[in-house]
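Quick note —
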Amino acid sequence: MSATPGRLSVNVDAHVYAGTTIGATVCPQDNRAVMALTGHWMCTIHIYTDRAQLVRLRDAFTAALADLDAGRAALVAELTDTRDTAA
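Predicted structure written out below.
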């Protein structure tokens, strides 16, 4: 199997826990950064990205966090309504 140029050629799953070390090495001369995830029983995963793609990652994480917060708030409201109705 040959990789298509410009395409990601590997899939990696990683669970990030409180003990996972998240670090960054910045390379200003190349306008890029390397993000590293390291944890117990997990090899280090490096994410190589230029600034524009780093912004995309930041925005995707920010949107996911907002969606998660909204979903959790809706769940709490639903559970509260259910308890109020049962009382």
